[in-house]
Amino acid sequence: MQSANATNSSSDRAALNAEVKQLTAEIDRVAKQADFNGTKLLDGSFSSQLFQVGANAGQAIAIDKVVDAKANALGGAMFATATFTTASPADGVTGLKIEGLALTNADGSTVTIDTVEVAAQGTATGTRDAAAKALVTAINAKIGESGVYAELGAAGAVSLTSVKDSVGTNGAFKGIAIETGTWTGGTAPADVTASTVATTKQYASNLDISTVKGAQQALEIVDKALTSVNSARADLGAVQNRFTSVVANLQTSSENLAASRSRIRDTDFAKETAELTRTQILQQAGTAMLAQANQVPQNVLSLLR
């Protein structure tokens, strides 16, 4: 965000970019070196892993959504670039429309471009470069709405680059083709046409905030990277809670098994104590009866005396 501010000079942005490069390198180092017990965790290789949670085969939990946190894998925002030739000298430009244009990707899928109207600040007349500058100013004034950054090239060529992820949820591009608007002096000249249209996918390793365009794109790349990391954290947090439930269930099963084994093998102290008391009472009663029986002969002898 700091580099995207117009108060920074080129040298300021270069210094900020050097810091970004170092931070990106550190993210990459952590992703490549983070490990547990010799197993890499964040370099993209830790996927489709099984954790055994039961005593039988197949009783396992699979983890397959650990994020690839390397710099060349985080982000993945699509950007489109188109270069156009502006009007001939003395043709005034009063407006511009970033209009729906069908593009065909290398994989054969077709995407379209949303329409964004751009009104020029007054009529630009005179040289080709003057007209182009008016267009660039008008387009950049709408960057928050269109997500398109304009640059002036040689011979009045205007380069339009998307600084937001160019592919929406419905597969539509959020910017970047132009259609002629209202021209002074008659119909629009034929040389306002797209000469090149290209799309690129950029990651954290491609971060370059040495220019305003790069800083704007960097914000989108970082947002995409944060989304990926937050999604991975949510998935791993859910799995962790699942493991907690599994551990609690296994502990309950272990306690129930121990109780069952104890009921089968261990002594029932209450029952055995009652049995011991009964036996002692019977023993004492038998002893008393035997003592009385031993007194009978003595009583007979005493009578004979």
What does this structure look like?
- The chain has five helices and 13 strands.
- It is 43% helix and 21% strand.
- The protein has a four-stranded antiparallel beta sheet.
- The chain has helices spanning 10-33, 128-141, 143-146, 212-265, 269-304; strands spanning 35-36, 39-40, 49-52, 60-63, 77-85, 93-98, 103-104, 110-111, 116-124, 148-152, 157-162, 178-180, 194-202.
- The chain has 305 residues and is α+β, with helices and mostly antiparallel strands.
- It folds into two domains: 1-76 and 204-273, Up-down Bundle (f41 fragment of flagellin, N-terminal domain), CATH 1.20.1330.10; 78-200, Alpha-Beta Plaits (2-Layer Sandwich).
- The longest helix is centred in the last third of the chain and has 54 residues, at 212-265.
Strand-helix topology:
Blueprint: H1 10-33, E1 35-36, E2 39-40, E3 49-52, E4 60-63, E5 77-85, E6 93-98, E7 103-104, E8 110-111, E9 116-124, H2 128-141, H3 143-146, E10 148-152, E11 157-162, E12 178-180, E13 194-202, H4 212-265, H5 269-304
Antiparallel strand pairs: 1-2, 3-4, 5-11, 5-13, 6-9, 6-12, 7-8, 10-11
The count of DSSP E runs of length 2 or more, i.e. the number of strands, is 13
* Poorly predicted parts: 86-107, 109-128, 169-195
The major β-sheet equals:
4 strands, antiparallel
Q: What is the N-to-C succession of helices and strands?
A: HEEEEEEEEEHHEEEEHH
> Mind telling me the C-alpha Rg?
42 Å
Strand order of the largest sheet: 10-11-5-13
Please, how many helices? 5
- The class by helix and strand makeup works out as alpha+beta
Gross geometry: rod-shaped
The second-level CATH architecture of the largest domain is Up-down Bundle
- Structural domains: how many: 2
CATH class of the largest domain: Mainly Alpha
- The first-to-last residue Cα distance is 129 Å
Mean pLDDT: 73
CATH superfamily of the largest domain: f41 fragment of flagellin, N-terminal domain
Task: Look up the CATH topology of the largest domain.
Answer: f41 fragment of flagellin, N-terminal domain
Oligomer: single chain
Q: What proportion of the residues is helical, as a percent range?
A: 40-55%
Strand content: 15-25%
